[in-house]
Each structure stands twice: as C-alpha cells, then as structure tokens.
Amino acid sequence: MSENKIYDVKEIMKMIPHRYPFLLLDKLEIEEVGLKGIGTKNLTINEGFFQGHFPDDPIMPGVLQIEAMAQTAGCIVMSTDDNYAEQDCSVLFMSIDGVKFRKPVRPGDQLKMYLEKTKTRGNIFVFHGVSKVDGQVVSEADLTAMIVRK
C-alpha cells in the first residue's frame, strides 16, 4: 500500500472487529505504512457516553480516548503489507503506560489521534500516541499490542 492512504469507516471495519457503539474511528490516514498514522473521531452530543458523563457538562471519558488511540494503532498494524486481515489475525491491546489527560474533549470536537510505532518485537508492537483537538494536546499514552490469530 502506498503512503498517505486514507481509509473510511467501512475500510476500518474490515481491519478491526469494533462496531457501533464501540467503534471510535471515523477515518484513518496512514502516513508511513505500518509505522505512523492519524485516526479521526468526530464527536456529537449523540454519543452514548455523553448522556451519562456528564449530563450537565458532557466530557468524553479518558478511557475512551485511550481506546480510540488503541484502535488507531491496531489499524496501523493491520494496514501493513503483511496481510494480517487475510491471515485471520486480530490486534489485542496489552498495556498502557505514561497516560496523561490534558484537556476535556466535548461534543462538537474532532479528536485526532497521532500514533507512531516505537518498537517491534516479534508479534508485539509499542506505539506512542498523542490525541489533539484543534491542534492542542488533550491526552497521550504509550500503548502495547500484539497480533494474534483469531
């Protein structure tokens, strides 16, 4: 696959098993195949989590921001030329480190997750992720995941 490939939500759903309401990616841009990409989530007041977190001051839960980063990392891995999807493989989240939440994410925001692979060891991958809204950092983390056969 060429660099700077953009995937829509239908293509994303071919890479990872998540579905509504837990699919937290609307678009994915691969900057460097298998190494670096940007996930996008457009947030509306209709997101189920805003109804309870918090009704008078809706904020996207931090754990869901991290999950959106993990889904982005999983898609970056699955989009490689290794044909993991054709091999009936999946990406499983293993750990998170260095999590920081900087600013609240609210309805109407466009959350962009910038992920870059920092390490590979066999079927295990480590990514550094930074999420931004309007160019300002809202959260960051280091994520570890592995490729497994379904």
Describe it.
With 150 residues, this protein is of the alpha+beta class. It has one domain: Hotdog Thioesterase (Thiol Ester Dehydrase, Chain A, Roll), CATH 3.10.129.10. 19% of the residues lie in helices and 44% in strands. The protein is built from three helices and seven strands. A seven-stranded antiparallel β-sheet has the order 1-2-3-5-6-7-4, with helices on one face. The mean pLDDT is 94.
Task: Give the gist of this structure.
This protein has 150 residues and is of the alpha+beta class. 19% of the residues lie in helices and 44% in strands. The protein has a seven-stranded antiparallel beta sheet, with helices on one face.
Poorly predicted runs: none
Structural class: alpha+beta
Largest beta sheet: strand ordering: 1-2-3-5-6-7-4
**Radius of gyration, in angstroms, nearest whole number:** 15 Å
The count of strands amounts to 7
Using the coordinates shown, work out and report the CATH topology: Thiol Ester Dehydrase, Chain A
Question: Kindly state the mean pLDDT as a whole number?
Answer: 94
CATH class: Alpha Beta
Please name the CATH architecture. Answer: Roll
For the record, give the distance between the C-alpha atoms at the N and C termini, rounded to a whole number: 24 Å
Secondary-structure element sequence? EHEEHHEEEE
What do we call the CATH homologous superfamily?
Hotdog Thioesterase
Shape: globular
Strand content: 35-45%
Please give the share of residues in helix.
10-25%
Q: Please indicate the count of domains.
A: 1
Oligomer: single chain
